[in-house]
Amino acid sequence: MTVVIPAFNAASTIDETLRSVRSQSHEKLEIIVVDDGSTDGTTAVVREHVLIDPRVRLITQENAGVAAARNAGWRSAQSEFVAFIDADDLWAPRNIERQLEALLAAGGNTGLVYSWYALIDVSSRIRTKSAPVYFSGDVLSKLFEGNFIGNGSAILVRRDSLLSTNGFESGLHARGAQGCEDLLFYCRVAENFRFAVVPEYLVGYRYSPDNMSSNMPRMLRSWLIVMDEMERRYPDRRGALVYGLRNYSGYLLHQATTKGRFGYFLSILILLFQRDPLVAIKVLSHDLPRSLVRAIRKRLEGERDQAIRPTVSSFPIGDPG
Fold this sequence. Notes:
- By secondary structure, the protein is an alpha/beta fold.
- The chain is built from twelve helices and nine strands.
- Strand 6 (110-120) and strand 7 form a beta hairpin.
- The radius of gyration is 20 Å and the shape is globular.
């Protein structure tokens, strides 16, 4: 079983990430960290783990983006099964154990298994949890409607699914449209393999202002590239793809509004009108107002609940020993 950790300037978080990987209940692991041209102390932190745990190996490369780093990792892996985790995210101790069980139980035509995730802050405290989803089997159309897996640290895959797709698409980075490498990979895997799910919150996904996903216009450009590729191959499923565009652009506009990123808001809106004016009008007139109202209600309810239950739990990562 191989774990691949792409890392770029992750000195402040990768120690905790590696501790969460090294403390997995499934102990027979090959742990490959791919340093993607870091200029901070990332490699020094990783080498400390290499010295105390023979399962950890470090690969270094010039900066080429997260997709290229993941590809370098899995291509040097020795295992039939590969899991990925970003260098600022965390796993609960039984994540690999539960995912491997689910993948094997689902049969040989299942190429990917995912877990649910909790959103964590800079102190690794759980702030919220992803909506529970149970999509399994043939999930391609569901992926067209939205990335229900949510992040790149929630998956374990068969090597065959990596070989059949040639891994992650590094061309998005070269085109300045990185961000949806995960979704594109999932779609390509789903064309030939079935998916399985572990319905447990086993992944801690850390969101910060420096995350790749914080550049919202770039994320939409990336989404549109994925949409174009899939529409070329599946013109009969255009309805699902348009539905996904409406969902995702509405989400990005909501985020831009609530975070006060009005320059991003305008850029997203221009991209959306250029692509599909009808979708843009529907999002502006219907989806965005409704989502903002829901957010206000949720915040008010959250403030009330916080007054009753003020504690915030930390994400469990175990102890590597």
